[in-house]
Prior knowledge:
Elements: H1 2-30, H2 45-70, H3 85-114, H4 129-156, H5 163-166, H6 169-183, H7 191-238
Amino acid sequence: MQGSKLVSKVVWCIVAAVLIAPIVTWWRSVGDPSAYFTHALPPGQSIFIFAKLAGLLAIGLFWAQALLAMAPRVPMFRGFPALNRRAHIVFGSATGFLIAAHVGLFVVASSLRKKVVAWDLLLPNFDHGYYFLFITFGAFALYLLAIALFAGWRTHRGTRAWKKVHMLWIGVFAFALLHSIGIGSETRDGALRYIFLFTGSSLTLLVAARVWSAIRSRQQRVGLRKASAAASSHHNLGV
């Protein structure tokens, strides 16, 4: 019991660090945010910095939600704190809001800068170099997020068949992380880059462990059914 409590405290400390790091890094990068409203700046620049903050926080919160929802179901991660259904929905809603804020603010800021509505940022673009490729990864994350959120809502309403579709969250996180590390100024260098790489590698390990655990459980169930069928068959022959 004491070991589980210690593990839980350590995990919560790591979660807090992952959530605080983006705020600290963002603040060090932009300086005093109030200056963006009191000085002459290019159109949309003050909006753009808050789009970046929303995106950075979304990555951290998304990771925390996935970790706390999945880890307690994997034997090797027993002792990790678990989210109940209500907390999972709150975390998911907050993550969805932050991603929507990131996308919305970024499109608004770009539109003000270009003086034309930048709808093109929401469409796949593989023909204009590195930057737009990683913008496209972000757009893919947004598309998959809409499907995953809808599937989560249907699952919550009792339609269990949508649970597998909700697993698209893995693709959402992967594309969002690539998008952030690829073109995010705060994640190119420094500690935040390694923290985000840690979030990606830890979730990769967790998903792999969850899949392996599910395969093992299925094999055990199949083995038990075969053993039960064999025992029943021998009993009937004896009769």
